[in-house]
Amino acid sequence: MSSEIRNAFAHPSERSEATSSNGPLDRISLRDHIVEVEIGAFQAERGTIQRVRFNIVVEVRPLTGPVDDDVDRILSYDRVTEAIADSLAEERLNLLETLAERVAARILLEPQAERVFVRIEKLDRGPGALGVEIVRARDGEHAGAGAQDRPHPRLMFLGNAAIASPNLSGWIGQVRADGRPLILCVGAPDLPAPQTGHRMTQRRIDLLALEQNAWVLAARDERCKVVATRTELDWAMKNDQISIWAPSKIVLDAVDGPSAQRGDAVALAAWFASTFEAEEIIVIGADLPDYPGLTLRAVAVDQAQL
Q: What pLDDT, on the 0 to 100 scale, is given for residue 148?
């Protein structure tokens, strides 16, 4: 077996050593760290917990002075396991590649970290381990994660009477007049939905009912575009696009997902608003739920003055 092939399947610590630069770097490693989590893009992986194994090596700058047996002077192993736990807690993920990128990015926030090798493997998807391995290095402009703050949008929930109102376009114009990004949320249409008697399939049907109404709203005002992912939402907020939230992906990917029943659409919108740290959601033509930590301002359809 050639050295290149052997290194490809070796532990990340051996890959780190084989690809190290001239400058000496210390290494810390996490071996065979197994977490049980729901992850995966296939339908068979939704609602199923599987074992995922992590092997991580972090190359760190050597200390310039004595360690003095002081844990505050070194990159603690806890920071590595916390990077894994925080990445898994953020949202339900489909891809190991996404998880590996997030773990690596969090580790490289540590001032001592210079380069990180992350190998993640699924242990329950077949007779062997299925995985991905990435190598990421600190860039020259690394100060503080490099992530831009997501703009804080205004959110407005529209009941069915509001969607059908001739005043709809005027209300949207009033709310976005201050220049802040605007995200619209809707409930289910006034039609009976199929009932399956099965929790997971009913949840899907109820979410799809909300998305059907999102497309109805999009047809009423061409300025409004239906979006389903956080990437789309981030782009829309930065590019002055009015978004209508299609909730299925974000709700189903949430680690602690909210209720998605047809009658809970305003509460679902309030949960979504809280993920953006919004302070208020305007609700036109629907009853208000009790949602702590967020102001919900109700406006009757026949009295809507925003």
A: 46
Other beta carbons less than 10 A from residue 21's beta carbon: 10
Indicate yes or no: pTM above 0.70.
no
Summarize pLDDT for 118-157 with one digit per residue, the tens.
Answer: 999 999 998 889 999 999 998 744 433 334 455 678 899 9
**In angstroms, rounded to a whole number, what is the distance separating the alpha carbons of residues 157 and 219?**
17
φ and ψ at residue 97, rounded to 5 degrees:
-60, -40
Angle at the Cα of 107 from the Cα atoms of 50 and 19, rounded to 5 degrees: 95
Tens-place pLDDT, residues 185-195:
999 999 888 89
Structural tokens at position 135 = 């190598």
The residue type found at 275 is T
Please give the pLDDT value at position 22: 56
Rounded Cα distance, 199 and 261, in Å: 10
Burial degree of 224 (CB within 10 A; 0-12, 13-18, 19+)? buried
Burial of 66 (0-12, 13-18, 19+ CB in 10 A): exposed
Closest CA to 94 of 290, 252, 265, 303: 252
**Are the beta carbons of 250 and 230 closer than 8 angstroms?**
yes
pLDDT for position 183: 95
- The H or E element containing residue 280 is strand 280-284
The CA distance from 274 to 135, in Å, is: 34
Do 188 and 265 meet the contact criterion of CB atoms below 8 Å apart? Answer: yes
